[in-house]
Amino acid sequence: MGDEGTYVALGLKVWKGQIERADKLFGGLSSEEVLREIAPGRNRLLYLWGHLTATHDAMLPLLGLGKRLHSEFDVAFVSNRDKSQAAIPAHEQVRQAWKTVNGELWKGFEKMSWSDWLQRHTAVSEEDFAKDPSRNRFAILLSRTNHLSYHLGQAALGLK
Amino acid sequence: MGDEGTYVALGLKVWKGQIERADKLFGGLSSEEVLREIAPGRNRLLYLWGHLTATHDAMLPLLGLGKRLHSEFDVAFVSNRDKSQAAIPAHEQVRQAWKTVNGELWKGFEKMSWSDWLQRHTAVSEEDFAKDPSRNRFAILLSRTNHLSYHLGQAALGLK
After folding, report:
1. In this complex, do B6 and A139 lie within 8 Å of one another by their Cβ atoms?
2. Structure confidence by residue, pLDDT tens digits, B39-48
3. CA–CA distances in Å: residue B84 to residues B26, B46, B81
4. Best residue in B8, B146, B154 for a mutation probing chain A (most A CBs within 10 Å)
5. Nearest-CA distance from B149 to chain A in Å?
6. Over the Cα atoms of chain B, what is R_g?
7. Do A142 and B3 touch (CB under 8 A)?
């Protein structure tokens, strides 16, 4: 493995570490606990968990790894605020989707070579990518890892 | 610039983006507002800002970029909880230190070559580094960026 592979391996290690942190934090909650708000009047833990699941699900097509598995999560957890929808996916559905989506992502990551990470992501056109090659898949990995950390910091406030 | 440089540039871009986000969030607060808790009974915004400053200050020696500038921040913002100390650095001191520390870090980053980032950080011995070369400076950059995101997510709750 050359030096390029070292950077990718580091990026993946940090991603994996944050996923494990989220597994532990959200995975240990009961169906009552996931409905707890992180602070009075703020998002519930289930909303954050669903929001992260939907965001990670959208990474599948963005990184060219496959179709979305749970685009129905967007209405409940992305395009609308918490507590604005009459019905949202239940605790068990979010738990399952979180596991499936991150499993699929990881399988895809393992198949990618270090140079694949420098290819454009699918939300940028070839023309725009030619102008700014930093809009690549590795940039998505880093930014989504930080997005996960951002909400993990919030979710931690919802614990006892 | 080879591909190795591309990864480093991406890591630095994400770091810079989060620093700018923090500049905007914390920099826009009045001296009354920084004393607001992010949620009832939780850390105050000033504590988070000081905590991030101290953490970034410690990156200077960790990355071999120089001595710490504000090690006195640790008592107030790292080794003790918020509201446990009789006196902590004031708003203006934190603002100045945040600016100085991140400025010094960036100056150091600009002097580093991509291969410098794969060198061991100073908290790991040569022996341990030989066993696990992932304990390098790029790993510190990625993990500290995520640490920043984690607390930014919390700090955002303290805004109106």
Report:
1. no
2. 999 999 999 9
3. 22, 14, 6
4. B146
5. 5
6. 17
7. no
